[in-house]
Write a structure and sequence with these properties.
The structure is a single chain. The protein is α/β, with parallel strands linked by helices. The protein is built from 16 helices and 12 strands. The chain has a single domain (about 10-455), classed as TIM Barrel (Alpha-Beta Barrel). The chain has helices at about 15-20, 55, 60-75, 85-90, 100-115, 130-135, 145-160, 180-185, 190-215, 240-260, 265-275, 280-290, 310-315, 340-355, 380-395, 445-455; strands at about 10-15, 80-85, 120-125, 165-170, 220-225, 230-235, 295-300, 305, 355-360, 400-410, 430, 440-445. Strand 9, helix 15 and strand 10 form a beta-alpha-beta unit.
């Protein structure tokens, strides 16, 4: 018996603002990502003539995609997750007519993937939106954005209905709680009430996009995308266990709304106790009843929860301020490595929703150092991915329905958090550096050939 089913989709995942570059080409408007040149946790800046940022060129995927797709095909990819830059299609966000040059670019991209028999999975909004919608409407805090997003979604569904059969609405939609400008176009110091209202508008927009996709492309499947923030209780104290339940619910509720079709009672209670009463109309409630076909998520690490305030204070400033797990090793960036957590999360989501799952991000960021002959021995990446994929195979044996696996950053790209390329994820090395130097030449790492064999053997080459 093979470790993975024959119809399992193998591939990688990228985001437009982290790979494309060409930030002002072919009529593209400014996006929220363009004014965050130091990443999603960096300052918002006003771009001026002649300035530059690493993301402006990124890895120049906008022009080099045929070469990169050929390398993905060489590895055996059957799926590539990409995103459409919303501001390439509607540069300000509120136009009545789309930008044809932007639409034509993605036609070429999808045609190139088809030539290599690679199925695209397309995220509609991956950590960016037209800056005009923030400046002129106040971002997702404004209910008008629901219709602007729906116009964009319907436009690309109509245009690519014969080329794209797998869609996602918003990337890591729960990240808005930690990075509100990136997620919903609100200032970082916005009130919780404002952020949750903006999130509600986004959830309604997501549901309406799901409905539109079902109408326009009946043979397509459209999912949501969660940041899989699995948390464990630090101790077996009942207070820690209950606080962990609440912490997990703080991101699971996004899945509850998108998979079950309504805001869950526990979340409405939490908001009410904080003095937050959302504006939810009857039309909103009707819209939310249209639910996603599958659940996709990212998984990089797990964390711990405790009611011990002294330990919580020590954790402030960690990634998402999580208390570290004393039983786990960490990466160079302090992200704890927990392969079994992926199996746990897969089972948890399957038990909760009984909808197919898709792992659309998982990978290891590291500082890769080419040898004198140019080779890159990234055994640490191979070990990380091997151990996580073994746990995916275990979850399949548990009876979890899993559609596929797209590793994050199959080619080196600009990181989201700090907009640096030195934190590399790829199977393919890109000769570019944090200071902007480099030839942009592509080369295969050791992990390239490892992943190629994993795909060719349907996982049988994985080492226990």
């Amino acid at each position: 018996m093979k470790r993975f089913p024959d119809n399992f989709l193998w591939g990688g995942a990228v985001a437009a603002n982290q790979v494309e570059g060409a930030w002002q080409q072919d009529g593209k408007g400014l996006s929220t990502s363009d004014v965050q040149p130091q990443g999603i946790f960096g300052p918002i800046v006003q771009r001026t003539a002649g300035d530059s940022a690493l993301k402006d060129i990124a890895i120049d995927f906008y022009h080099r995609y045929p070469q990169d797709i050929a390398l993905f095909a060489e590895m055996g990819f059957s799926c590539l997750r990409v995103s459409i830059a919303w501001s390439r299609i509607f540069p300000q966000g509120d136009e009545t007519q789309p930008n044809e040059a932007g639409l034509a670019y993605y036609d070429r991209l999808f045609d190139e993937l088809a030539r290599h028999h690679i199925q695209p999975m397309v995220t509609l909004s991956h950590y960016e939106m037209p800056l005009g919608l923030v400046q002129n409407y106040g971002g997702w805090g404004n209910r008008q954005l629901i219709n602007f997003f729906l116009r964009y979604a319907r436009t690309v569904f109509q245009r690519y209905q014969h080329k794209v059969k797998l869609w996602l609405t918003f990337n890591e939609i729960n990240m808005s709680l930690h990075a509100p400008f990136t997620g919903v176009g609100l200032p970082g110091d916005s009130s919780k009430a404002a952020i949750y209202q903006a999130i509600h508008h986004q959830l309604v927009a997501s549901a309406l996009a799901v409905k539109a996709c079902h109408e326009i492309i009946p043979d397509a499947r459209i999912g949501n995308m969660l940041l899989g923030g699995l948390m464990y209780p630090l101790t077996c104290k009942p207070e820690d266990v209950f606080e962990t339940l609440q912490q997990n619910r703080s991101w699971q509720f996004f899945g509850d709304v998108q998979c079950r079709g309504a805001w869950p009672g526990y979340m409405l209670r939490q908001l009410h106790e904080q003095g937050i009463e959302l504006d939810i109309t009857d039309e909103d409630r009707a819209a939310l009843r249209e639910t996603v076909d599958f659940i996709s998520f990212s998984y990089y690490m797990s964390g711990c929860v405790t009611t011990d305030e002294a330990l919580n204070q020590q954790a402030r400033g960690n990634v998402l301020s999580m208390v570290p797990n004393p039983h786990l090793p960490s990466s160079e960036w302090g992200w704890q490595i927990d392969p079994i957590g992926l199996r746990t999360l897969l089972n948890m989501l399957w038990d909760r929703y009984q909808k197919p799952l898709f792992i659309v991000e998982n990978g290891l960021g590291a500082k890769d150092c080419p040898q004198a002959d140019g080779t890159i021995e990234d055994d640490y990446r191979i070990s990380y991915l091997n151990d996580h994929l073994l746990q995916v195979a275990e979850a399949l044996k548990d009876g979890v329905e899993i559609m596929g696996y797209t590793s994050w950053g199959p080619i080196d790209l600009i990181s989201a958090s700090k907009a640096e390329i030195s934190k590399r994820y790829g199977f393919i090395y890109v000769d570019r550096h944090d200071d902007g130097a480099g030839s942009l030449t592509r080369s295969r790492k050791k992990s390239f050939f490892w992943y190629q064999r994993v795909i060719a053997t349907q996982g049988d080459s994985l080492k226990p």
